[in-house]
Amino acid sequence: MLWGIPTNGHIGGLRTHCLHSATTALTWIINLPSRDIIQCKINRAKQLLRDREIAIADVAHDLEFSHQIHLNYHFKRLVELTPKVFQKNQ
Q1: Which of 1, 31, 41, 54 has its CA 20 to 30 A from that of 9?
Q2: Domains delineated in the chain
């Protein structure tokens, strides 16, 4: 036993490698959706920005970004243009 954990490979009837695998999978699942959600939001922002009459602040609000700068940051990171430049080029 090490720090109260059995060293025989079992914890409460579960094998320790199963716990490690489950923890790794849970970490992967938690991190994956945020990346995918941001990508989906940016794709939707591109659709909305093609309509030149919509304000970028309204796009950020509609897509539930905390602030316009948050939209700008992710948009530029993924599209390599600011939302304003993207909208002007449409």
Answers
A1: 31
A2: 31-88 (1.10.10.60)
